[in-house]
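Today's session is about reading a structure prediction critically. Students often jump straight to the picture, but the first step is always the sequence itself: look for stretches that repeat, for charged clusters, for runs of hydrophobic residues. Only then move on to the predicted structure, which in these notes is written as discrete structure tokens rather than atom positions. Here is the chain we will use throughout the hour.
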Amino acid sequence: MFAKIYFACLFLLCFSSLRLIAQDRPNVIILFADDLGYGDLSCYGAQDVNTPHIDRLAQEGIRFTDFQVASSVCSPSRAALLTGRYPMRNGYPVAQAEIEKHKDYGLHPDEITIADILLKEGYATMAIGKWHLGFNPGGQPIDHGFQNFYGLQSNWLSSHPALDDVYENRTIVKENVAFESLIGDYTEKAIEYIEENKENPFFLYLAYHSVHSPILPNDAFIGTSKGSLYGDFVQELDYYIGQLMESISENGLDEETLVIFLSDNGPAICHFGGSAGPLNGGKYTTMEGGFRIPAIMRWKGQIPSGINNTLLSSMNLLPTIATLAGAEIPEDRIIDGKDIMPLLKTGQGDSPHEYLYYYNGTNLQAIRKGKWKIHLPRTSEDQPFWSKNAKVKPFGGANLKNISCKGLEVLDRPILFNLDNDMGELTDISAAHPEVMEELLREAERVRAELGDVHLIGSDQRVPPFENIQEKN
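Below is the predicted structure for this chain, in token form.
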């Protein structure tokens, strides 16, 4: 009897110790919206939509006002978030299209993702939703640290029925699914995963298709906003975010889970609507409206609530999450992201980035240093396939108030903005700050030599496995 009691107590002690270790290493959930603009949420100033669940997430956590992604299109942005490296460095500079030349285009097997790092630390790892980083051998989610995957290869496209199949790991489990069914299906799968793994640390990467085209909210949400069908779609996304957060609370995981909500790039304002708020441009551009996105982090009891105006990047997530898990950050490669946990602990802090680089495909188009942002000269031929426009004339004025939704497609001279005073990038002040221009132009030459450009292979550039990278065919 004594022996039984002894071993029972020993088991309980060991279980409690393991539970304590699990609590010390938080669960991590990344909620990745698609094409959601800086001005599309009510907590970011939207007037025609109501997003109470995401607003609550912002109230309970940190809402960021100057959070950048590394590309204004889907695939490169996702690659940069997962690897902590610029798309030119990780080999994924252009969006994957359904074309023959991209058939072997996938996230390189040598790239290390957040999931790779956490899996080695004993985390359960799962990706749900849109992948869009290759479905070739070696490029699938379960080749990159995710034990489980449930979702679509890339976008849902009625013109490509094979892309409308839901995969579980490498196997098709649902064929030709209705687009409207995906958001609820993904959320249900995510809630199941949370419940199944609540006793051990887990990493969940949930990449919704919303609010990417097609703009098809479910019937229950049609007409619920003042923002037409697109606004209804945003509100549907908010509803399902609310469902997920409710599950976290019901499972007692609020204080054990870091929740990160962000968008992959700015809104597709030229095509489907959406708002970049006070920012200029949107998806497909290197204006702030393409790169600066809504971002919120919540970890109850561990990080404060409030608003943070620090210049940060989605590439910061890998080293930050690695630190939280007690893992080592890879030292055999350059990680462009920085550990921002000290900033998260206080809610404020200085930017860890001296410079941030804005590429459109393989074309370096802008550089940021603090409040300063320079836009570099470019031609239509320099642009990736989604931005080419041979008929457009070079921008030659000083005011960008009426610039096209496609941003600065052609530019024959460098121009400069002070984003502290002009976050909309409306007025060129290059003539008044020659010393700033000189520094940033010098930095442009340095980074081109390292990361490359349209006609230059950089010293630390991973080149995709096809030629004519900026061309569709």
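Discussion point for the tutorial: The longest strand covers residues 27-33.
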